[in-house]
Amino acid sequence: MGADDPSSGNVSVSLPLPSAGGYYLMVGGSGPNIGSPTDPKDPASGAGVGSEGAYSLKLSTRQGGDQDVYGVDLKAGDVVGATVTGSGHHLSFHDSAGTELMGSTIDASGSYSPASPLPGGGNATVDLVAPRAGRYFLAVSNGVGAYHAELEAYRPGTEVEPKGTVQTLFLDFDGARVNTSIFGSGGAQHDLSPLSAFLPGWGLGPADENKVIDAVVASVKENIATDLAKKGTNPHFAVRVLNSRDNPDPFGRPDVSRVVVGGTIAESGIPTIGISSATDPGNYGHEDTALVLLDLLSAAAPDPNSLNTYLGPQSDKIGFIGRDSATSSRTRQATTRATGTPTSSTTPRT
Is 0.85 topped by the overall pTM? Predict the structure, then answer.
């Protein structure tokens, strides 16, 4: 198993070995096309990795140590976070049946919204939005000796805001200028191409643009404004979905987040398909930016990242593109944990 900390560029791996024998550790660069060697004894085999360059590697072993478990009673929708310092290096939340819901061996709290009250700064940080009322458990493990663990619980951000607060999700299809410092990738301004620039990659033309936008907007409204509002545990969740074709750009005003649907890896300088400016379990921050880059999604088949790889002659091309872009807006960018629906995705709130 492995885990990244996007804010620091570091990767931490912690794995209990099930038995004696030989094991292999692969070190690879970041990027959307990262691959694994086909022969673990030949590092030159396989499809290659996303980048090359110098790196440092620290490899160590330790005895497994103890696991301490602490119980906490939560209400549906409670937002709980924990961090650990000292000898503890792994945190995980479990439900009453013992099922692990979230686990972590790193401190990724640097990706939280600045408005989030959740703790961080330790060896590992973990968070959870309780899907239902009941007893939950925090397990501390992967270490021998003294440690200090903090656990804090809060109600969702929208429950402590003024009554009637409505958050706006703005879908930006006509291109945008974005300062990528919010994604931890430097402070340069980047101009991102509009959705229309990628239609030819899917075999579509200018006459199809409105149909694609309609499909994306409809899917986002169903996924976020309808499904999450009905299935989530936060009764105060309210979101309004606007878009650049039909509405003036409201970004920069209070309670407005945006998803830029367009741009490329080269334009943004970020090797990804989707990225968000923050992870916000509990929905405490209200002004976030997310990107759904379209160069890989519109690449020629058989690129595994391209929608063209999965489209056939009888496919509903526009519907498929609309649903996938909406899914990118929701699961890669717009948070589900913020509304009380737990997920393993790391995405911003809406």
Answer: no
